[in-house]
Amino acid sequence: MRTLGVEITGSEALLCLLSKEEDVFDIRDIRQTRFTLGNIGQDTDAMRKFHFDFAKLVEDYKIDSIAIRQRAHKGKFAGSAAGFKMEAALQLIEGTDVKLLSSTEVKEQLKRNPVPVDFADTGLKKYQEQAFHNAYVFIMRKTYGHEDVEQAE
Length: 153
Description:
It is a single chain. This protein is α/β, with parallel strands linked by helices. It is 35% helix and 24% strand. It has helices spanning 44-60, 81-91, 103-112, 129-144, and strands at 2-9, 12-21, 24-28, 34-36, 65-69, 97-101. Strands 1, 2, 3, 4, 5 and 6 form a 6-stranded mixed β-sheet that branches. The chain is globular. The two termini are 21 Å apart.
């Protein structure tokens, strides 16, 4: 299972590719660890390019699923319009399972199933940490099921 963890901040999508085969996690190198949406998503051509480039990355690396941290719709920590456009563009990629993860779900899952290695030892950049956690949580959820996670301890 190859999962692309995505953290959307402002007009950037930060990425981390994580795979799991036979209970072994592997952090894969990818050609691009961040995508920036040009013109803050107000230009149709920029949106099409973002969608095409992202879909091409998914196809090239044979990614099965995408895990995105869900942002608030209202309030102090609400996501930007560009962020929601990027999220929609990712959800429209054909043949890919896209899951929005709530912050609460991510925190609970990491508490139940902590990452078995320090993030500093992964070799990833600091800005990829949230994307890594998103991918890890999604894989753990797929592995143990949503309701069965508590029994996996």
